[in-house]
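Lab notebook, bench 4. Still working through the backlog of constructs that have no structural model yet. Next entry is a single chain of 330 residues. Request: give me the structure tokens for it.
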Amino acid sequence: MKISNETKIGVLTTLSIVLLILGFNFLKGNKIFEHNRKIYALFKNVDGLETSDAVVIKGLPIGTVAEISAADPDLKEIRVTINLKKDVHIPKNSFAYISTGLISSATIVITRGDSQEYLSDGDNLPTVEKSGLVAQVETNINPIVTRLNGTLASLDSLVEVVGSMFDPRAKNNFSSILNHLAASSASLQLMLNEESGSLAKSLGNVNSFTGNLAKNNDHVTHTLDNLDKVTTNLSNTKIQETVATINSTMSELKGVITKLNSSNGSLGLLMNDKKLYQNLEGTTRSLNTLLDDVRLHPKRYVNISVFGKKDKSGPLAAPLADSSLKSGTP
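Model written out:
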């Protein structure tokens, strides 16, 4: 059977369309041959949200926006169909909001609740309205722009009034003053220059000092703790009692020295009386003489021999010289 060219072209066209649809869904991240769960969320405003935008929980993508449609003819609410790609349990008391950025696309963020019941296929997810980053910036900038416009209008009126009050010569003087002010502001700007300004260098030194102080904060704290411990120990020490004890000891020592210098006590007499010293010296000399005589003539003092000869030599009149004592001669 011969197939006509028209049939071949039709088959190829159909296959191309099917492949195009499948490839488009594949690029969007949809699983073609797998059924995904779908849940729905109702928002009052979906600015910036588009199909295929991500749906995340704690930063983890769990699905995509499959469809955005009107929930009612008055557009009071807009239904967003969420295609869940991951098998995750979403508690029923969870809620979702749309997060928008300046550069990135919008994202539906789901905050999980603590319920033990989970959303099923086709359930509705509660939502809350949170202003995106762009809306917050616009909200903060709009009052500033309004005030700035009013300030510029007031300044314009002031310039017109001032201009009408001066004659041409005064206007020239006023312009000269403004030129001087401009020159002064230029000089001030040069002084405040980030690279060469003196003030900037001073601020840099201050920043360097504070940085070093911050780096050594632990050391400073440790030093202060040690100083506090030392002062605490000093305060706990009985310094006054110690000083009183030292003073008492010095007083007693002073009294002892005074008694030694006086002639009332034995030590004082021994130290100050020359005659007593001479008597002690004579007594010591006589004792030495007696000991030498006993050593040389023991029979004169102790006679235990019946037939021994009695020592008839006379007693010593003076102690022996050091040489005779060393040599041992009688």
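Notes after review: DSSP finds nine helices and seven strands in the chain. The chain has five domains: 1-33, 35-130, 136-191, 222-265, 274-327. Flag for follow-up if needed.
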